[in-house]
Write a structure and sequence with these properties.
The complex is a heterodimer of chains A (181) and B (201). Chain A has 181 residues and is mostly helical. Chain A is 70% helix and 2% strand. Chain A has a two-stranded antiparallel sheet with strand order 1-2. Chain B is 49% helix and 8% strand. The chains are: A mainly alpha (181), B mainly alpha (201).
């Protein structure tokens, strides 16, 4: 990706960091909330992972115990804008896994609560799974995360404060100003 | 272009390269620390889960399937039955399919494996009736009375037989001291099979 600073910046170039900021905050907050709803009952979280029937119960329990904490930290770092690109990649990876999990559950005809924002598990008869909505929501979040992967330089981010904001530096091209003198 | 200007320009290029190098290093450091934080969070979750796990677990001697299945017979075909003892539909299953299963057990046709599960823990007050009742079947299993106990729980159950949570507390529970005779949520309105009070499976 080459940034040609000599050219005047387009509307998109000015808009992208702001859009990325909103999406970064959105994905971050969603991850923190999703993790927080599960962190209170790790055994239930393990059962929720096990309900997908994608791995043995022993491994599902470990994944279920670790996942809420990972979600909270990834979400928190995203919301803060720290190591933005790496966290965006991680959240996109998690979302891809969730999308795969829900799709596979749907294809196999299992009737479960996805455990996305709750403790999950089997659904009672009469309750219908909402896989389509779950998939649409996770896909939109995945797109948001991927956008942040492509445009990791956002406003109100600790990264910008810590590493120096490239976007601002690009504003006054030193070569151009020197030559003008 | 004067030589002084060229000198100035090359100095600046070097400065910028150094700054970029510094930024790259700092970026790498931030990335490493952040990834480390994520890994640490996962480990902490696992650690908390491990310490929260009850320490004195007595798995019934006869249990299979990593401790949650109790076989009550042996045969060429395995039939797994998952039961929550607070669950009326499980009771329905027991009364409708029970005789057939019993016959197959008698004929040595099936290996009948029961899995007492707890999916309705939150439906009693205090929560946890399903877990305790399930645990009780485990104790019964150690005395070779699993199947008898299960049948007794179902036969003598004014609680699980009802569609309504309001009657889910009864003598067997008090006898087992698993739950005070006050269920949650309290019954409101007229009990009808289609109402929200209906026991989930």
């Amino acid at each position: 990706m080459t940034v040609t600073t000599a050219q005047p910046r387009t509307v998109w170039q000015r808009l992208a960091p702001w859009l990325a900021t909103v999406l970064r905050l959105l994905v971050g907050v969603v991850f923190v909330v999703a993790g927080a709803t599960k962190v209170g009952d790790l055994a239930a979280s393990g059962r929720a992972v096990n309900a997908y029937q994608l791995m043995p119960f022993g491994i599902a329990k470990i994944v279920g115990a670790a996942l809420p904490f990972v979600e909270i930290v990834v979400g928190l770092l995203l919301a803060l804008g720290l190591a933005t690109r790496v966290m965006a990649v991680l959240s996109a990876g998690l979302l891809a896994v969730y999308i795969f999990g829900i799709s596979s559950v749907w294809v196999r005809g299992l009737s479960i609560d996805c455990g996305c924002f709750s403790k999950g598990g089997q659904l009672a008869p009469g309750q219908h799974p909402s896989y389509l909505w779950d998939l649409v929501r996770d896909s939109l979040l995945l797109l948001a995360a991927l956008f942040v992967v492509v445009y990791p330089r956002t406003r109100f981010a600790v990264d910008g404060w810590l590493l120096g904001d490239n976007v601002v530096e690009d504003d006054d091209d030193p070569v151009a100003t020197e030559d003008a003198q | 272009v004067s030589s002084r200007k060229v000198q100035k320009q090359s100095n600046r290029v070097v400065r910028e390269q150094l700054a970029a190098e510094r930024r790259r290093k700092r970026n790498m450091l931030v990335t490493i620390i952040a990834v480390f934080a994520v890994v640490l969070a996962g480990l902490i979750g696992f650690g908390i889960y491990e310490t929260q796990k009850p320490k004195n677990i007595n798995v019934p001697k006869t249990a299979i399937d990593s401790g949650h299945g109790i076989p009550v017979s042996s045969g060429p075909v395995t039939v797994d039955v998952y039961v929550d003892l607070l669950c009326p539909i499980c009771k329905n299953f027991e009364t409708t399919a029970g005789p057939t299963l019993d016959q197959m057990v008698k004929d040595n046709k099936i290996k009948l494996v029961y899995h007492p599960i707890a999916i309705l823990d939150h439906n009693t007050n205090p929560a946890g009736y399903s877990t305790r009742a399930g645990s009780a079947t485990g104790c019964a299993a150690d005395f070779g009375k699993f199947y008898d106990f299960l049948k007794a729980m179902y036969a003598d159950c004014p609680w699980g037989c009802s569609w309504v949570w309001g009657t889910c507390a009864g003598p067997p529970l008090r006898r087992l001291r698993t739950m005070p005779p006050r269920p949650l949520p309290p019954t409101t309105g007229s009990p009808s099979p289609g109402s929200a009070r209906r026991c989930p499976a």
